[in-house]
Amino acid sequence: MTSGAEQALRRMEAADRGFTARRLRLWVICAALLAFYAISWRLAGIDLHKLAVGLPKLGRWLATAWPPDLHELPLFALRTAETVAMAAIGTTLAVLLALPMAILASRPLTPWPRLYHPARWFLNTLRGIDSFVFALLFVAAVGLGPFAGVLGIALHTWGSAAKQFADHLESANLGPLEAVRTTGAGRLTAILYALVPDVAPVMLSTALFWWEFNVRASTVLGVVGAGGIGQELKNSMDLLDFPRLVTIIAVILVVVTALDQFSGWLRRRLA
Amino acid sequence: MDAPLPRVDVDPAEPLMRADGLAKAFNGHTALADVSFSVRAGEVVAVLGPSGAGKTTLFRCLAGLAPPDAGSVRVGGQDIARAAGRDRWRLARDVAVVFQQFNLVGRLTALDNVLAGRLGHVPAWRGWSHRFDRADRLLALECLDRVGLLAKAGQRADTLSGGQQQRVAIARALAQRPRLIVADEPVASLDPATAAGVLDLLRDIARDAQGNDGGVGVVCSLHQVDLARAAADRIIGLAGGRVMADLPASLFDAAAAARLYGN
User: Fold this and answer.
1) CATH number where B53 lies
2) How many domains does chain B have?
3) Could you read off the pLDDT of B39-55 as tens digits, one per residue?
4) Which residue numbers delimit the ABC transporter domain (chain B) (predicted)?
5) Surface-to-core class of residue A83, CB atoms within 10 Å of its CB (0-12 exposed, 13-18 middle, 19+ buried)
6) For residue B250, is it within any domain?
7) Residue B88 lies in a domain
8) Within an 8 Å CB–CB cutoff, is residue A143 touching chain B?
9) Strand partners for B221
10) In terms of residue numbers, what domain contains B73?
């Protein structure tokens, strides 16, 4: 007499043999993935021949880039400072705007549940449009210069940071908030007293992340005329001035790395 | 600035809190049906009952965290669920809640957590800026002293042990200057010795507040009969959302327990 376990094993083995629905599904998924990559390859215009021809050209440029042109280092430093400042002001503005929106967009905290979905849609729209695109619009509206970049960064980061803040608030332990509410404290007082101390470190950490991210992102905002080091980068590329270009890239790398380290260190301290 | 509010002089014979015909259902499932009982000043009432008896629902109604479908909870004659505006806010201050999970703000100090009990008494800006006046800080420290944790005042709440956290939560409740303390399973997350200590504390608070401040009533849910018999003056047995027993603790014997838990 076979045991129940042995019978179950035999049934599984029988099911594994032959052409099963599960196997068919696997093949269909593989074929669909293959088709997806084939089509994407065509659409992305992948041309290995062009790469083979282009790489030596790039190599020659690199060779002419040495030695780097250091004459304009003070200008580059100023432009980089402009970039960091754009990111700092834009991110700070965004974080300040994000805090009230995060309360509106977090289900257990919002004083007006009716506005929960509209608030989320609004933030998703801001988040869906890159700061680069916003900067393009603002260059047209307020003219060339870093201010357009600041507005671009602020709007995109507003949506992104507020959504993250709202998620932090929704996943926070709401017990202390409820407890403080029962002492007779008002809603806002209870949020500030019971919830903010617990979520402040992770909120600050998120804000620092966005500053760091925006410094990297805003190095290219100059390309659309929104100020900062990106402007010089584009000028050099247009003039095929590689010694200058290499210097600019080196300056960006140094500053971005230093800020990443600093911000990472600060975030570890907050954790 | 925080003038003492006139307290209704409570006749010792008159209950501090009276629950009358409380009923509540969730999706057609009855959680509470016609629950009535009262708590007097200076009295500790324990609510016992098997899991799913409706204890948590009852305590959310008593604490004003959930409105009952029918019936009322009256404290000093005022209905908690129907009070509005100033009355509602005053009732919130009069009823202090102690939770099973303590619900302290982990990153604040023990003292700051106790000061949260003053938030219903002070202007909002003091709460926002954590700037309480000297009298409030002194009161908070006295409350911490009362629960035996004065030495831990400056320590972050999340570094305290479970028993210590529950004591800080009780100090927070005391800082409210409440008339009623509602405690839902206050010792369920604690080891037996610590649990007995916390219940002794609640009983002492009910006893020693008697007379000087109008008297504090304590109503707490428990799931251990022996703890209830040691700490409570009266025991309410709840099963299937109904009150099955309402006895002086000394009369709640093994037979009563067996009937309540259905074995």
Assistant:
1) 3.40.50.300
2) 1
3) 998 899 999 988 888 89
4) 17-257
5) buried
6) yes
7) yes
8) no
9) B47
10) 17-105+179-261
Residue B22 identity (one-letter amino acid): L
Q: Which residues of B touch A190 (CB under 8 A)?
A: 119
Q: B71-89: buried (b, 16+ CB within 10 Å) or exposed (e) per residue?
A: bbbbbbebbbbebeeeebe
> Are the beta carbons of A193 and B127 separated by less than 8 Å?
yes
Query: Would you state the pLDDT for residue B5?
Result: 43
How many A-B residue pairs are in contact by the CB < 8 A criterion? Answer: 77
Answer yes or no: is B171 within a domain: no
Contact list, B172 vs chain A (CB under 8 Å): 179, 183
Of all residues in chain B, the one with the smallest CA distance to A194 is B105
**Does B8 have pLDDT greater than 60?**
no
Tens digits of per-residue pLDDT, B156-174? 999 999 999 999 999 999 9
- Domain parsing of chain A, residue ranges: 4-64, 73-270
**Cβ atoms of residues B202 and B183 within 8 Å:** yes
Instruction: Tell me whether 0.85 is exceeded by the ipTM.
Output: no
* pTM: predicted TM-score of the whole model, two decimal places: 0.78
The answer to whether the CB atoms of A183 and B92 lie below 8 A apart is: yes
A63 falls in which pLDDT band (50, 70, 90)?
confident
Residue in the structure block whose two tokens are 């007379």: B211
φ/ψ of residue B20, rounded to 5: -130, 110
Percentage of residues of chain A with pLDDT beyond 90: 47
Residue A6 confidence class, pLDDT cut points 50, 70, 90: confident
In this complex, is the C-beta atom of B83 within 8 Å of any C-beta atom belonging to chain A?
no
In chain B, how many H helices and how many E strands?
9, 10
CA B122, CA B115: separation in Å to the nearest integer?
10
Model pLDDT for residues B87-116, shown as the tens digit of each residue: 888 888 999 999 999 999 999 999 999 999
Residue B235's beta-bridge partner residues? B46, B247
